[in-house]
Design goal:
Elements (H helix, E strand, L loop, with lengths): L7 H9 L2 E5 L2 H9 L5 E6 L8 H15 L3 E6 L3 H4 L13 H7 L3 H5 L12 E4 L1 H4 L4 H8 L4 H5 L2 H8 L6 H17 L3 E5 L3 H15 L4 E5 L24 H9 L6 H8 L4 H13 L2 H16 L2 H16 L9 E2 L5 E3 H7 L6 H9 L3 E3 L2 E2 L6 E3 L5 E5 L3 E5 L1
Helix pairs in contact: 1-2, 11-12, 13-16, 13-17, 14-16, 16-17, 18-19
Length: 401
């Protein structure tokens, strides 16, 4: 069994860096960690997509810190809960099939391995909640439900908003917190951590642990990195960093963040202490924000790669964007005719997801043909002898040949 490390400085860092809240209290968890007792902690991730992203990377980093202190770490894949769908949005989630879920999570351990150790001393464990949730009888589900009231469920923020807007709340959505809560009971853990958008579900597990196991369960919520409007990064915005991103793409995405995200980025995604953060805030008022953003991008690439990759990514970005050069290798797409509509070219090359997305990108000036901005959605693209390059945004290119 791994021996725990009682290092007050490391424990205080764990309890404060990128942390939103601790239940029942930060001091109670601090006392537990300083006691030297080895505890078990888990992070649950529903495989709703094929890549782990920044929203996962921050709590995974917190798991890594506890692993370094010698505690038992569990990465739980919500292969059963993903088929139900966490009701964390203002609309009902589409329920995924078993096949979709298993396809999505097949690279999760590989991605998480950038931060966690799954072999050697004190290896992290990988578990799947289908192993116990699929075996619950209807009687047992009814018993789980008896630990909660409808009023408690309706206290969830997005349920309240849906009620106000008269949007439907499906009955199965009430069962999701029960399922996530039962994960804690099935694994008999001491602690759960996750993003602060998971607070409701994690506290449901705390309730079940108290009532079914007569055991205190700690809950730690991490801060989310959001833009100036409080919106999480996502696929739609094109700035969501994933653990499958290349160093170049990761660097470029950070450079696309708004200036308001620079300080939170340093706070949550780097090891900058309070003194360094105060210096960054002062510099932000005096210097070009791009200088600080480059430093932040370098630190985030360094987090998941290495110094050489971070340097090369910085050089690539400077070459591609500041010197207005095209990348050395541009994917090609063969066109049978000598010309094609710009909208069709964007869709066929998969630079956009749909024709409506293509029209929006063109109208907003986000598309170039051979370096020239095109805003006419009816424009045609003629294929030159050496090919014709289409660019969407700052980083995405295709050559029509």
């Amino acid at each position: 069994m791994s021996k725990t490390i009682v290092d007050q400085q490391k424990i205080d860092w764990f309890l404060t860096h990128a942390v939103e809240n601790v239940y029942p209290s930060r001091e109670a968890l601090r006392e537990k960690l300083l006691s030297g007792e080895r505890i078990s902690i888990y992070l649950g991730i529903d495989p709703t997509g094929a890549t782990l992203h920044m929203g996962h990377m921050i709590p995974i980093q917190k798991l890594a810190e506890l692993q370094e202190l010698g505690h038992q770490i569990i990465l739980l894949i919500g292969d059963f809960t993903a088929m139900s769908g966490d009701p964390d949005k203002l609309t009902v989630r589409r329920q995924l099939t078993r096949e979709e879920v298993l396809e999505n999570c097949k690279l999760y351990q590989q991605q998480a391995s950038k931060l966690l150790r799954f072999s050697g001393v004190n290896a992290a464990q990988l578990k799947f909640n289908n192993d116990w949730l699929s075996k619950l009888t209807f009687k047992e589900v009814v018993e789980l439900a008896s630990h909660f009231t409808v009023q408690q469920m309706l206290e969830r923020d997005n349920f309240e908003k849906r009620m106000e807007e008269q949007k439907p709340i499906k009955l199965h959505e009430f069962l999701y917190p029960l399922m996530q809560g039962y994960d804690s009971v099935a694994m008999d853990v001491d602690m759960e951590l996750g993003g602060n958008d998971q607070t409701f579900n994690m506290l449901a597990g705390r309730t079940l642990m108290k009532e079914m196991k007569h055991k205190e369960k700690f809950v730690l919520t991490t801060r989310l990195l959001v833009d100036s409007n409080g919106k999480k990064m996502g696929k739609t915005e094109g700035n969501m960093i994933t653990m499958l991103d290349s160093a170049d793409d990761m660097y470029g995405k950070v450079m696309s963040w708004t200036d308001e995200m620079i300080v939170p980025g340093f706070e949550i995604c780097t090891t900058a202490d309070q003194k360094e953060l105060e210096e960054i805030k002062k510099k932000l008022k005096k210097e070009n924000p791009m200088i600080l953003k480059r430093a932040l991008a370098h630190q985030i690439v360094l987090w998941l790669y290495d110094g050489k990759s971070a340097e090369q990514a910085a050089e690539h970005f400077a070459s591609l964007h500041q010197k207005h050069e095209q990348p050395e290798e541009i994917p090609e797409m063969k066109i049978k005719e000598k010309s094609i509509s710009l909208i069709e070219a964007l869709v066929q090359s998969k630079l956009v997801e749909s024709k409506s997305d293509a029209r929006r990108q063109v109208e907003q000036g986000g598309v170039k043909v051979e370096g020239k901005v095109i805003t006419d959605v009816k424009a045609m693209v003629t294929i030159g002898k050496q090919g014709t390059v289409i660019q969407k945004g700052k980083r995405h290119f295709v050559k029509l040949v």
